[in-house]
C-alpha cells in the first residue's frame, strides 16, 4: 500500500458521569468520539471530535457526523474501534458504509462469543429488540493475525483478502491499527478535558 493512503479511525472514550460527561437535554452520559485521519506511513493528517449517548442508539449517526465534519475526499478507508461503543450503542455498518461511500471495517481486539447474551442481560423490550436487529444485520466477524496479535473484524466494501492487506498496512507494530490507536488517544485526551 502506498504511504500516502489515508484511513479514518474512529474510537471512543468514556470516563463516567462522575467526570461531568452528561447530555444536558436528557441527563444521560455522553461518550467522546474521536476521528483521526492517518496515512499508511503513520503521519497524522486530521482530527475531529463528537459524542454519542452512553447506552443510546445514536453512535451510527455520530460516526457519520464525524466523517462529514472532516469533509475529506482523500480518506480511502474508515476503521471503527468495535461494533458497540458507549455501552452497547450498536453501530450499523451498512448505514455508515452508505453514508461514507468507502470501505468500512470494524475492528476489535479480543475474542468474544458475540454480544447477544450481553444485550439480553442488559436490555429488554424495544431497547433490546432494536439493538438485536441492528447487531444481527452486521457482517460476520472474522479473525486475522497481525504482528502476532489477533484482530477481529467485520467489513463492508472489502473482501477478506483486502482486509488482510489493509490491517497490516496500517499496523506497523503492535496489534492496533494506527488510525484507531491515534483516535483512541485523542478521544481519551478530549474526554479528560470535559
- Shape, principal axes of CA atoms: globular
- N→C terminal distance: 38 Å
Summing up helix and strand content along with how strands pair, one would put the structural category as alpha/beta
* Order of strands in the sheet with most strands: 3-2-1-4-5-7-6
H/I helix tally? 7
What fraction of the residues are assigned to beta strands by DSSP?
25-35%
Q: Are there runs of 5+ residues with pLDDT below 50, and where? A: 17-25
Overall helicity: 25-40%
**Element string (H = helix, E = strand):** EEEHEHHEHHEEHH
Question: How does the major sheet shape up?
Answer: 7 strands, mixed
Mean pLDDT: 93
Main attributes?
alpha/beta; 36% helix; 194 residues; seven-stranded mixed β-sheet
Blueprint (SSEs and pairs):
Blueprint: E1 6-13, E2 30-39, E3 44-53, H1 59-70, E4 75-81, H2 85-88, H3 93-100, E5 104-108, H4 116-122, H5 125-137, E6 142-146, E7 149-156, H6 160-169, H7 178-193
Parallel strand pairs: 1-4, 4-5
Antiparallel strand pairs: 1-2, 2-3, 5-7, 6-7
Helix pairs in contact: 1-3, 4-5
Amino acid at each position: 500500500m502506498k504511504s500516502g493512503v489515508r484511513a479514518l479511525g474512529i474510537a471512543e472514550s468514556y470516563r463516567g458521569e462522575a467526570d461531568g460527561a452528561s447530555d444536558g437535554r436528557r441527563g444521560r452520559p455522553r461518550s467522546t468520539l474521536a476521528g483521526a485521519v492517518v496515512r499508511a506511513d503513520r503521519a497524522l493528517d486530521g482530527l475531529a471530535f463528537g459524542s454519542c449517548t452512553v447506552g443510546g442508539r445514536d453512535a451510527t449517526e455520530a460516526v457519520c457526523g464525524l466523517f462529514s465534519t472532516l469533509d475529506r475526499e482523500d480518506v480511502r478507508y474508515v476503521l471503527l474501534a468495535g461494533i458497540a461503543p458507549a455501552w452497547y450503542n450498536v453501530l450499523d455498518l451498512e448505514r455508515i458504509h452508505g453514508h461514507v461511500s468507502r470501505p468500512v471495517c470494524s475492528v476489535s481486539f479480543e475474542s468474544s462469543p458475540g454480544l447477544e447474551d450481553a444485550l439480553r442481560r442488559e436490555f429488554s423490550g424495544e431497547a433490546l429488540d432494536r439493538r438485536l436487529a441492528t447487531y444481527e444485520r452486521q457482517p460476520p466477524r472474522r479473525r486475522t493475525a497481525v504482528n502476532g496479535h489477533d484482530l477481529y473484524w467485520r467489513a463492508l466494501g472489502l473482501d477478506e483478502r483486502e482486509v488482510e492487506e489493509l490491517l497490516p498496512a496500517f499496523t506497523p507494530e503492535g496489534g492496533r491499527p494506527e488510525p484507531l490507536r491515534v483516535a483512541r488517544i485523542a478521544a481519551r485526551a478530549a474526554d479528560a478535558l470535559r
